[in-house]
Amino acid sequence: MDAAYTAVHLEEDRRHWYFRGRLAVLRACLRARLAGRRGRILELGCGSGNVLEALGDLGETVGMEVDPGLLAAARAAGLDVRPGALPDDLVVPPGWADVVLLLDVIEHVDDDVAALAAARRALAPGGLLLVTVPAYRWLWSGHDLALGHRRRYTARELARRVERAGFRVAHRSYFNTLLFPGIALVRLGKRLRGDTRHDLRRPPAPLNRLLAAVFSLEGLVVPRVSLPFGTSVLLIAHR
After folding, report:
1. Which domain CATH number covers 196?
2. Domain range for residue 48?
3. N or C: which end of the chain has fewer CB within 10 A?
4. Tens digits of residue pLDDT in 120-162
5. Among residues 152, 158, 149, which one has the least CA distance to residue 138?
């Protein structure tokens, strides 16, 4: 991830429509699976902690982050975030977590199966893994380059990697489906123009609110239904 993008990410990850909508979907999935129970939640590659901060009502939260700037921002927000990098570091004892989150992380690492195996070591027996990744190689654009992505996935490809790491897949779905046509056109247009800039530019406030609300609606569907396409993939598995 380039330094310029990291600075923008710190400004936008609690305000931009994408992060607000994604958080609504993630919370809906976790609430559905936890069914009112509180647990120990570990987020690997937690960035500035915007998701961890929003999950405090679901249990005890711990994060791991390799980027010093993002780590400092998370700690400044009062979050328990510890330095570490996948797949070798484990910032909690083996079997500590009831839930492990890998949110737009494994596409950044050289060995995604090894990263998933590290998540499995952190989980208690029967524990829950929630993974999100960017979808479809044909959506590759300058945004992926700016973020340091190694790959994009189909839902089937992600499931195979998760199973290779020793998990049992319980649910998988594409998401960010309602806004998919517009995003796909933007990405393909950027690729044709040779535009290598990232996409994280917040639109005017009324449009930002509208896009966040539209994306958030998927939280009513994704926990239970496998959507057939979208800009991202979400997968839930058990240890």
Report:
1. 3.40.50.150
2. 3-238
3. N
4. 999 999 999 999 999 999 999 888 988 899 999 999 999 999 9
5. 152
